Every structure is written in structure tokens, then in C-alpha cells.
Amino acid sequence: MNRKKYIESEDFLKPLNMIRLYSSGAFPMADEATREIKWYIPEIRTIIPLNNYNIPRSLRKEIPKLNFEVRFDFDFLPVVKGCALRKRTWISDELIEAYLRLKNIGHVHTVETWMDNKLVGGLYGIKYQGAFFGESMFSRVSQASKFALIKLIEHLNEKEFVLLDVQYITEHLRMFGAKEISFREYNQLLLKAYGKDCEF
């Protein structure tokens, strides 16, 4: 995994500094062992093109049969903690506190999957202008995170966002049309996204 590392600093977890870093293409991760938080800018970035995404045919058929409900920004903290609740995680308690501060100024959003009035999956990310930086997702039942991702893509298109950044390629994301691009291409999308003032 090719990463360019920023110098560590507690100041980088202040809300406005975090937004500046995200808007330059950086994102934070806590070391699994030390919990030290560092900022990274990979030379290769992964996006889901909002004008050319894919929903697998099998998923299109299955989702309507499931009793899922989507909610936006309804229950933030359980979503982030759900994403962090795994054997190996880069989401530390300190980062969760930083995300809460960002949420309080309107830059962090959740897409939540509910079933029978219970939270069963979802995702969260950072919003700035016409860009959405997807951070993590989780599922407690089959297809719950995929449902949340579908609803995120539909929502971002409805609100005329330019960029959905998903950081690194995975088979899960590849199903939805995720692709790797150079940082130069990515930076061009950032600049285009910052020319729009989209509401989430």
C-alpha cells in the first residue's frame, strides 16, 4: 500500500484543520498497535464514478426482498462504532472524538440501514463542497452495507455531487464500479468538486 505520510500533530485533529487536510486529498488512520494517528495521501486513489457506477444485477433483485429502511444522519455514534468494531481497526477512540467534532460543524454524515427499527449496517464519510470522502462501512446482516452504499450513490447524484472518494480498491467496492486513478486525475476532480456547494 503506497502512502505519503504527513507529520503527526494533535492540531491536525482540530475540525478546520481536518477539513483542510481532507480537501487536499489526505485522510487519517490510527496505528493498530500504538493508536498513533497519521495522515496519508496515496499516489493512487480509488473513486466510484457518480456518472458511471454499477449495481450488480443479483443485488438489484435481492435488495427489494429485504425489509431495509434507509436513514440519513439519524444515529451517528453507533454507526462509527459499528465500523470500528472489528479485530483490526484504524478507527481509534481519539478519531471518533474528532469525527464527532466534525459532525457538530456539519461535515460528517451517515447513511444507515435499519431493519425492524434496528440499526443493522451503514457507512459514514466527510462532506466538503461537492466531494464526499467515504471512510468506512459495516454490516450486521447480509447486504446491509451494500444497501447503504447504493443509497449513498443515489443520494449524491440527486444532490449533484462531483466526487465519491473511497480511498482504496476492494472487491466489495469494485462491484459498484470503483476504479483506481492517479493523484493528478484525482486532484482535477477535487478542484471540480470544490466549485460546487452541495448540500448533503
What is the CATH class name? Answer: Alpha Beta
Overall number of strands: 10
Q: Hey, roughly how much beta strand do the residues contain?
A: 25-35%
N-to-C CA distance: 31 Å
At CATH level 2, the architecture is 3-Layer(aba) Sandwich
Number of domains: 1
- Fourth-level CATH superfamily: Leucyl/phenylalanyl-tRNA-protein transferase, C-terminal domain
Residue windows where pLDDT falls under 50 for at least 5 positions: none
Can you give a write-up of this model?
Helices cover 33% and strands 29% of the residues. The chain is α+β, with helices and mostly antiparallel strands.
Short characterization:
With 200 residues, this protein is α+β, with helices and mostly antiparallel strands.
Q: What features would you highlight for this structure?
A:
200 residues, alpha+beta, 33% helix, Aminopeptidase, single chain, 7 helices
